[in-house]
Amino acid sequence: MAKVLLFGPLRDIAGWREKDVRANTVAELKAALTAEDAALGAALNGKGVQVAIDQRIMRNDTGLRANAEVAFLPPMSGG
Amino acid sequence: MAKVLLFGPLRDIAGWREKDVRANTVAELKAALTAEDAALGAALNGKGVQVAIDQRIMRNDTGLRANAEVAFLPPMSGG
Amino acid sequence: MTIALQDTPFDPGVLLAFFSRGRTETGAIVTFTGIARADGGKSEVLELEAYPGFTEGEIRRIAEEARVRFSLHDLMVIHRVGKIKPGAPIVFVATAAGHRREAFEAADFLMDYLKSKAPFWKKEHGPAGEKWIEPTERDHADVARWDG
Amino acid sequence: MTIALQDTPFDPGVLLAFFSRGRTETGAIVTFTGIARADGGKSEVLELEAYPGFTEGEIRRIAEEARVRFSLHDLMVIHRVGKIKPGAPIVFVATAAGHRREAFEAADFLMDYLKSKAPFWKKEHGPAGEKWIEPTERDHADVARWDG
Predict the structure, then answer these.
(1) Is B76 helix (H, G, I), strand (E, B) or coil?
(2) ipTM
(3) Chain C residue nearest residue A77, CA to CA
(4) Model's pTM, two decimal places?
(5) Which of C88, C90, C125 lies closest to C6, judged by CA?
(6) Which domains can be identified in chain D, with CATH numbers?
(7) Which residue among C37, C70, C138, D66 is least crowded, i.e. fewest CB within 10 A of its CB?
């Protein structure tokens, strides 16, 4: 089980901010979310969306430990 | 009569800060001060010493009104 | 080094008083305060979202880079999150260095990062609804000055 | 626009609190505080002499130039004169502008002027006696950046 966090516009598209999802890799996790909500699935694969696992940006899908925190970060706007 | 003001190192050379001197032009004023104190006279003609009359820097000797304030400003150090 | 997000208003004067107190070995302190312009009452409420922990961590990483690059004695970054009223301060950066050039450049560098690349998501709430904001072209040009 | 010389210590935090209060139409405030470094107790007492009236007038002239050049909303220059203890603030500059680049550049410009060309005469009082100080090469190079 991974804890998924959405930020910025992704949160508005999904209508939620945080959700537990059963997945062993980021790819599995995205597939599960896309099955539920195709618009969210498209947005997660949108330009500039980064993935942080346990608060670290990951370029590759390294697999998820149990209870990993997976955050989808759309392009950051600065403060 | 002009009110003469000395600043920075000039004050230390002269041993005074303010003095009334009888003069109609800056040249006359410098001559009078040089007659009293040759070291001060040399310092007043030193490199970078500017003359302000009534708080305005003057490049030329314009002559002095009665009770003019004549300040000798050695190179400024900044704050 | 102080890096903090906060969801309540702050007074930049109080922060500078705190940052400068007893700092007798520093020659130069520069501060930057960014304010949400009120635009004569026409301005919209700004909402800043951060990723708690991650956002401070990323800011701390850049702050550490600035500390080394500009030989800083100390620095502080305080950033508002949540809904920010027009006219309220959004960000406060302070840098302390031996000489003024380093203090100025470090504050400038930190602000360019914070305004264009820091992990915040920014939304404007107005009468016409809500709108997510991206960095401006000028923000991108500013931050590019520090590369290479 | 506030330009003042003062012969007693000041707290930069109080000045920033004063300068920033109610400033809801300004996007950016930059401050610079210059401190007489204590150098671990080895530092000497600094004495700054000004020409009252003339010195403020010259600073005001440059401040007015900065106001126009950098489209400032407001600015403040507070400068100590007289004997200044090691560790005490010497100068405080604050600039308010619509955007951060103008606020930074104006504060930088004003400080370069104040440190190298402003009408002050500076003396160090130490155990070995007194010494008049002139601007450093770096000060001259800094101020030359703004020409042409």
Answers:
(1) coil
(2) 0.90
(3) C134
(4) 0.91
(5) C90
(6) 2-144 (3.90.1170.40)
(7) C138
